[in-house]
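Incident log, structure service

09:12 report received: a user says their structure output differs between two submissions of the same chain.
09:20 pulled the input from the user's history:
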Amino acid sequence: QVQVVESGGGLVQPGGSLRLSCAASGSIFSVSTMGWFRQAPGKERELVAIISNDGKTTYADFVKGRFTISRDNAKNTVFLQMNILKPDDTAVYYCHVQAKERPILGFMAYWGKGTLVTVSS
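09:34 re-ran on a clean worker, output below:
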């Protein structure tokens, strides 16, 4: 069983910063892509940023230049440094992990329960 747990959400003023963390644990043979998605009230879940196991990153246009994704492969952990936060960034942020529990199996998608980020004055 693979577990994905996020942390770091909270209330922050516009222009402020937050750092989200996500750790994958359990029966993990290997981890591929890790990333962050978010879902705001009344909207569909959308991709925020992803990072491959060799460090290649992809960002949504609305966060490029403000957010930075990174990872610690030894700890199966991914981070999202969020700067210059705007009210539109308010959402539940979900961690996404592609991992396999057995070498013969393909990669599967695992999701965290989400952490709430609220940007408001």
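09:41 both user submissions now match this output. Likely a transient worker issue. Closing.
09:42 reviewer note: The CA atoms of residues 84 and 92 lie 18 Å apart. The longest strand covers residues 30-39.
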